[in-house]
Amino acid sequence: MIITMKKSAPKQEIDALMGRLSSKGLQIHSSIGENYNVFGLVGDTSVIDPKQIEANPFVESVVRVAAPYKKANRLFHPEDSIIEAGGIKIGGQEKLVIIGGPCSIEGREATVQIAKAVKQSGGCMLRGGAYKPRTSPYAFQGLGTEGILAMVEARKQTGLPIVSELMSADKLDEFVEYVDMIQIGARNMQNFDLLKAVGKVNKPVLLKRGLANTIEEWIMAAEYIMAEGNENVVFCERGIRTFEPYTRNTLDLSVIPIIKEKTHLPIIIDPSHATGDWKLVEAMSLAAIAAGADGLIIEVHENPECSWSDGAQSLKPKKFQELIEKGRVIAHVIGREIA
Amino acid sequence: MIITMKKSAPKQEIDALMGRLSSKGLQIHSSIGENYNVFGLVGDTSVIDPKQIEANPFVESVVRVAAPYKKANRLFHPEDSIIEAGGIKIGGQEKLVIIGGPCSIEGREATVQIAKAVKQSGGCMLRGGAYKPRTSPYAFQGLGTEGILAMVEARKQTGLPIVSELMSADKLDEFVEYVDMIQIGARNMQNFDLLKAVGKVNKPVLLKRGLANTIEEWIMAAEYIMAEGNENVVFCERGIRTFEPYTRNTLDLSVIPIIKEKTHLPIIIDPSHATGDWKLVEAMSLAAIAAGADGLIIEVHENPECSWSDGAQSLKPKKFQELIEKGRVIAHVIGREIA
Amino acid sequence: MIITMKKSAPKQEIDALMGRLSSKGLQIHSSIGENYNVFGLVGDTSVIDPKQIEANPFVESVVRVAAPYKKANRLFHPEDSIIEAGGIKIGGQEKLVIIGGPCSIEGREATVQIAKAVKQSGGCMLRGGAYKPRTSPYAFQGLGTEGILAMVEARKQTGLPIVSELMSADKLDEFVEYVDMIQIGARNMQNFDLLKAVGKVNKPVLLKRGLANTIEEWIMAAEYIMAEGNENVVFCERGIRTFEPYTRNTLDLSVIPIIKEKTHLPIIIDPSHATGDWKLVEAMSLAAIAAGADGLIIEVHENPECSWSDGAQSLKPKKFQELIEKGRVIAHVIGREIA
Amino acid sequence: MIITMKKSAPKQEIDALMGRLSSKGLQIHSSIGENYNVFGLVGDTSVIDPKQIEANPFVESVVRVAAPYKKANRLFHPEDSIIEAGGIKIGGQEKLVIIGGPCSIEGREATVQIAKAVKQSGGCMLRGGAYKPRTSPYAFQGLGTEGILAMVEARKQTGLPIVSELMSADKLDEFVEYVDMIQIGARNMQNFDLLKAVGKVNKPVLLKRGLANTIEEWIMAAEYIMAEGNENVVFCERGIRTFEPYTRNTLDLSVIPIIKEKTHLPIIIDPSHATGDWKLVEAMSLAAIAAGADGLIIEVHENPECSWSDGAQSLKPKKFQELIEKGRVIAHVIGREIA
Description:
Four copies of one chain form a homotetramer. The first copy, chain A, contains eleven helices and 14 strands. Chain A is α/β, with parallel strands linked by helices and 339 residues long. Chain A folds into two domains: 2-63, Phospho-2-dehydro-3-deoxyheptonate aldolase, domain 1 (Alpha-Beta Plaits); 74-333, Alpha-Beta Barrel (TIM Barrel), CATH 3.20.20.70. In chain A, the strands form three sheets. The first copy, chain A, has an eight-stranded parallel β-sheet with strand order 13-12-11-10-9-8-7-14. A four-stranded antiparallel β-sheet of chain A has the order 2-3-1-4. Chain A has a two-stranded antiparallel ribbon with strand order 5-6. In chain A, helix 3 (108-121) runs parallel beside helix 11. Chains in contact: A-B, A-C, A-D, B-C, B-D, C-D. Chains A and C meet through helix 8, helix 10 and helix 11 of A and helix 8, helix 10 and helix 11 of C.
C-alpha cells in the first residue's frame, strides 16, 4: 500500500499516522519528493481500510498494491480449479460446458421437451428460471417450487444437471436438495447476506457479474462465498451497463483472460442476457470460445415468440445446435473440446 | 405501445400478432410507411411483455409510451405525498429533513455522543449503519443488533428518529420494532424479495438508487414496495457509476426535478456516499437544496480519521452545522425551510 | 416518426403542429389512448428535427422509427461493399486483413525493419502513427512528415500498403499523396470538418469509433464522409469508455454483427488500443475473428519496452505471427480466410 | 511515480530498469514486500511515459503521484486566475457571468432581438452557434460567417460581448477578429491541433468538457492551450455520457469544487446541453450557483418550438429572467453576486 502525503503535512501528523500503521505490524519505507512525501507499507495490508487513511486531511492518496482477495487469488493458488456440478467438470483444460434452456420455466411438460431438445442439440446442462428477478412487480415472477420440480423431472428424463437462480436465502434448502448448481444473479452480486448463505453450503455457485461491477468487486463477491468455506465458484459474465442503447448490455469478453490471470476459477459467458437479441448470440458465443471461455449459458426456447419472458434473446434448438457445431471447431483451434 | 414491423413481414404474420394483441382488449391503429409498418396499441399495455413481441423476427422495435409504474405515477396521483418517519414529515412543502450520523455505529457511548452533536448542529434525524454492506468479507461488517440498540438509546436521549440499512429480510422484525425509517441500500435496490418484504410492513422506506440503475428502474423498485401495500417510500440519490475516477460516484442532481415530475414521492440526497470526499459534501449539499431536494443524509463523525468505515467522506459536527446554516438560507430562496 | 402528446394538449395546439408537419409532405395517422394521443408520421422524416418538436410543451416524446442514415444503410444497399486500399480488398467475403505496426513511427530504419517483421509474420498492411493524439502536450507528438516518409520507404521495400492517422485537414494533401488508407482517430470521430474534408478525396478511410459514441453516431460519422462523395469507409472498433479500470477501454465485439446488419460496410477490430495490455491482445483478436470481423489492426514492436509510445499494448513479432496462425484456423471455421 | 514489480522479476531486469530511470535524473527508493517489490521515483517524472514502463513484463503496475499538468495546477499558482472576455471578468470573487442566447444563430434581426431580451433579463453576454457540430450531415450546419456578423451587430446594439464555437482552425482569424470568447465544443475537446491553434492567439477560450472525458483529461486539454502561451481558459461542464436515458447527459456538478481545488481557472456550467430539457434548466442552474460556479451559459429563444435547433432545451426570456432573479439571491448566500 502506498500513501502519498502533502508537503504541508506537519511532522507530528506524519509520525502519528506512521506510528499507528507500524503498530499493526507493517514496515514503512519513505520517499521524500519535491511536492509530496510517499510512504510504502510492507506486510499484511488487508487489515487496513484505505478510506480511513484518506480521511486524514494531509493525505493526498492511498493506493493498494496487493489485490484485496486471497482465496480466489491465483498468486496463492497457481493451478486451475476444476469445479464439479452434477458430475460435469468445469474449468482448467476440461471440456467446455454448454448450458441451454428457457429464460422462465413454463411447466413440467414444456421443460422436459426443451431439455430433450437441449440435449439433442449437444448441450450438457439445463438452465431455467423458477424464481425470476423482474423489473416490474406486475410481470410474471416465476413458477417457484413448481418450476424447480419441473426441472428435476427434466433431469430425470434426460440426465442433464440443472442450474437455476436463487434470489433469497429462505429458499436455500430447496436449492441444495434439488439443484446441481446455484446461480446468483447480476442484481444480487453484492447481496452479501445471500453470498454468505451460499458460502455455507456444499454446492457449486454460478456467480454472475453485476451490471455495474468492476472485475475486482466481482472477485471480491466470490471471495465472500469462498471465505465461508464454499470454494466452488464459477464466474459468469453477462454484460455491463454502458451508454450504448443498441444492445441491452455491453458484453465484456476481455474478462476471460483477466479472470484467468487473476484467479484460478472457471468463467463462462452468457451472450443471451448480455445482448438481449438472439441475432447476436451466435457471433458472441463463438467469440467467447475463441477468447478461452470455459463454457456458455444460452437461452433456448422452442417458440421464442410465445415464451413467458425474454423471448427476444432466445435461440430455437436448431440454431443452438448449429452454434455448438461451429463452437466445437473453434474450441479445437485453441486446444479445447466441447462436452 | 408502438410496434414497428419490417416491410418484409408477411400479411398472415401481422394478422396473427395483431389478433393476439386485440384479444387482450387492446385497440390497434396502423400507419403504413415506405419502409416500415407502424402499429399503435391503445388500452392497458402493462399486461404485455415487449420482449416477447420483439422475439418476432418481423418486428423491428417495440416502444412503450405509457410509464410502466402506476402507484408511484404522478399522472394518477397529482398531489405530493408526505411521508412521516418518527414524527418527522418529508416531502411536499414540508421542512427539509437533514439526517446526520456516522457511517458505521461504533458502540453505545459514541452513538449517543454523535447524536447529540447532530442535534445541536441542527440535524433532525440520526443515521447509522449497524449492518454494513462491505465489498470485502474481511472488512468490519457492523455491530448488528448491538448497533441498532445503541441507536435506540441515542434516540431516547436526544429525541432524534433513527434510520438504518436493512440488508436481509430475516432482520425485518428487529427493524420494525426499533427503527423509524428502513433504508434499502444501493446494492439491494433490485433485491426484489427484500423490496416485497418491506412492502408488507408499515414503516417508511428510504430507497437508495442503485449504482447503475436508471430512474425508471428506481421508480419500479418503489412500485414493488407500494404494490405490496406500503406506500411510504422516500427516494435517495447517492450517485451513479461512471468512468470518472476522481469522485467515488457521479452525483446526478437532475433526478430531483425528474422524480418530482414523474412521481408524487419525496427525494433526498446523500452527498457523502456519492462523492466519497468530505471536501465536496458542502458544495453538493447546497446544490441539492437549490435544486429542490426534500432533505439530505450526511455522514458526520467526531473524528473521521478514527472512524470504523468511510472516514474520508465524513464531516466533523462543526462543518455539518455550517452547512446547515448556509442551506437554511438557500432553502428560503426557493420557498422552503429546514427542520 | 412517432409523436406522443399529453392528454392535456388543446385541440388547436395539436392541429397547429400536425398542420405544420403535413405541410412538409408527411402523412399522419393518429391513435387516441386513455392517457396519451399518439401520432405516426409516414414519409421522409429525415427533414424533421425531433428536438424542435420536443420543445412543444404538450409533446411527451418523439421516437424515430427509420434510421437517420441513408448512404451507409443496408436497407437501401443490400450487398456488402468491398473497400480497396493499396490493392488490398476489405469486406464482404474477401480475405481478412491483418494490419500490424508500431504505435509511433520512430525513424526510417526502425520502420523498414518492423514492416519486414510484420510482412514475415503474415501481416498484409502496415500501420504507424506519424501525427499522434497525445493526452499531454508534453508527450512526444510524432515525427510528422518525416514519419510518413519513413512509412513510404517501408512500403517500397516490403510492398505493404500503409495506414496512418490524419489529425488535421491541413495535412490532407500529404496523406492523399503518400498514404493508402487514412485513419480518423477516436477523438476526432465527431470532428465534422475533418470528416467533410476526407469525404471530398478519393482514399479509403478507416473510421475509429469514438470512446463514448453510440453505434448510431458512428454510422452517422460515416454518413458525413459518404455524403461528400467518398463511400470508401471501413469501421474500426477500439473500445468504449466504461467504469472498469482494469482495461483501458471495454472492447465491444457485439458491434461486428450489428454493423453488418445495419450497414453494408466492412468492420475491423483494434484490440491493442481497446485493452491497452498486450497480454489480452491474442484472446481478443481470436474472438474478433470468430465474431466475423473483416480484419484486425494490431500494434507490433520489436522491443515494446523501448517503444516511443504505448509499449504496454504492443506485441513482439513472434507473438503476432502466432496470433495470425491461430486466427487463420478460426477464420476457416466461419468460412473466411486471412490474407 | 510508484512502480510495482513482480516477485519473479530477475535482479538484472530490475537493475536495468532502475538504471535507465536514474539516468534520467530520478531518485529511487525501494520497498521490498512479501509478494511485490515497490519502487518510488522522486524528481520530475513528467518526462516518463508510464505505458512504456508497463510494457516490461515484470512490472505489475505504474501509478503517478504528481498531477501531469503544470500551468493549470493550483499547486504552482495558488491564487485564482481572473479571465477577461470583452470587458467582463470571470472567476475568483468576481461577479457570476450569465451567458444567454440561441443554440443556432438564425439571422441578423432575430439575433439582435434575442440579444436585447437576454440583456433585459439580466444576462451579461451573448451566446450563439454560427458553425454547428451536428450529428447528421443532413441537419442545418449553421449560418457560418453570416451568423458571426449577426452576433457582431447584436453586440453593437446591446453592448453584450459574444461567445461562439470554433470548429476548425481555418476560421480562427474570423473568430479572433469578431468574437470575445472562443468556445471549444465537447466533441473537439481532444482535437489537439485545434487546441494548439487557439493556444497561439490572445483570446479567452471557453473549453467544454468532452462527453466521456475525465477531469484530468479536461485539465490536460487546458494545459495544451496554456502550453502554447494562451493562459485565458474558462472551463465549461455540459454533462457526461452515462447509461441514464431520461436526460441527454448527466450533469456532474461535483466538478465545480474539484476544478477549483486542482486548478486556478474559472468554471461555468451549461445546464441546457447537459439536460436537453428546458424543464430541468432552472433547478440545475440554481444548483450550479449554490455549488460555487463562476457562471452559467443557457439557451434562450423567443419561440423554442420554432428554433432552428435544440428547441427542447431553450428557455423563453421570461423564464430566463426568473432564473437569474432566484440565482442572484443564492449567489449572495455563498458570498458572490451576479453581474
